[in-house]
């Protein structure tokens, strides 16, 4: 790769939500240690495709550039991932870049991830407070519990787990693995546990746990290595116990 002078990019583009997708190819100057974001920035600087035609600059989203914000999710060589951590030197050329298919395309590589944020609202993925902020030190928790919650808290709502999951499709309303992890995160918080049963009920609604096919693609694709399958297993057990308690109380 170090002897190569150009990088060949094949980018699936779309001019608007209701427009048809098409493919543009670009050849840009190679520099060592480039990532996909820097390659897209090179196209933005000089938006000329491989045919020599002047085109509109490719549109994409990015923010932190260190795999924390989740904004730059896209499909690179068939794999959903973060563009900021996708190094050109480790990718086979031509590098094929597409928007994630799970979400509606706004333009080019920019997608609308509203379904993820709506799912978080549905399961009340927050800690309720009563307006009193000076409450002193929080309750102590065990080291095992702290580590478990830390792993779950690393979710950046990037959408990669939904793109990788075969159960997230036009025939299913599955909200996705990420939301189950967030239910676990907030249900294991000493204050968040007050709304534990509401969150479990939300996971039993349409598009909840029953839609998971246990393919385990999510845990393999997650860029943060979050133990999503463990969270799903824990939530299944807790939801089953919750249902038995409801039946016994009738």
**Overall CATH architecture of the largest domain:** Orthogonal Bundle
**Number of helical segments?**
8
Q: Count the beta strands.
A: 7
**Percent of residues in beta strands?**
5-15%
Spell the H/E element sequence: EEHEEEEEHHHHHHH
CATH topology of the largest domain: Fumarate Reductase Iron-sulfur Protein, Chain B, domain 2
Q: What structural class do you assign from the helix and strand content?
A: alpha+beta
Shape: elongated
> What are the low-pLDDT stretches, counting only 5+ consecutive residues below 50?
none
What is the rounded distance between the termini?
68 Å
Please give the CATH class of the largest domain.
Mainly Alpha
**Number of structural units classed as domains:** 2
Can you describe what's shown?
It is an enzyme of class 1 (oxidoreductase). GO terms for molecular function: 2 iron, 2 sulfur cluster binding; 3 iron, 4 sulfur cluster binding; 4 iron, 4 sulfur cluster binding; electron transfer activity; metal ion binding; succinate dehydrogenase (quinone) activity. By secondary structure, the chain is α+β, with helices and mostly antiparallel strands. It folds into two domains: 6-111, Beta-grasp domain (Ubiquitin-like (UB roll)), CATH 3.10.20.30; 114-249, Orthogonal Bundle (Fumarate Reductase Iron-sulfur Protein, Chain B, domain 2), CATH 1.10.1060. The protein has helices at residues 36-45, 114-122, 143-153, 160-164, 177-187, 196-203, 217-221, 228-249; strands at 6-13, 22-29, 73-76, 79-82, 95-98, 105-107, 110-111. The strands form two sheets. Strands 2-1-5-3-4 form a five-stranded mixed β-sheet. The relative contact order is 0.12.
């Amino acid at each position: 790769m170090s002897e190569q002078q150009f990088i060949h990019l094949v980018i699936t583009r779309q001019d608007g939500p209701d427009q048809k997708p098409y493919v543009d190819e670009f050849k840009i100057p190679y520099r060592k240690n480039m990532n996909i974001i820097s390659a897209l920035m090179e196209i933005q600087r000089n938006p000329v495709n491989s045919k020599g035609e002047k085109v509109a600059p490719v549109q994409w989203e990015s923010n932190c550039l260190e795999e924390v914000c989740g904004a730059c999710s896209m499909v690179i060589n068939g794999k959903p991932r973060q563009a900021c951590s996708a190094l050109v030197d480790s990718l086979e050329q031509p590098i094929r870049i597409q928007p994630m298919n799970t979400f509606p395309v706004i333009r080019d590589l920019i997608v609308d991830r509203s379904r993820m944020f709506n799912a978080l609202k549905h399961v009340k993925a927050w800690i309720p407070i009563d307006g009193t902020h000076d409450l002193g030190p929080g309750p102590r928790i065990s080291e095992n519990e702290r580590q478990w919650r830390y792993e779950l808290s690393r979710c950046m709502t990037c959408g990669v787990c939904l793109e990788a999951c075969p159960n997230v499709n036009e025939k299913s309303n599955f909200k996705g693995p990420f939301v189950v992890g967030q239910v676990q995160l907030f249900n294991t918080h000493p204050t968040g546990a007050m709304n534990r049963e509401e969150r479990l009920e939300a996971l039993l609604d349409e598009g909840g746990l029953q839609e998971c096919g246990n393919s385990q693609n999510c845990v393999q694709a997650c860029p943060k290595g979050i133990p999503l399958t463990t969270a799903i297993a824990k939530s299944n057990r807790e939801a089953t116990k919750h249902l038995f308690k409801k039946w016994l109380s009738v």
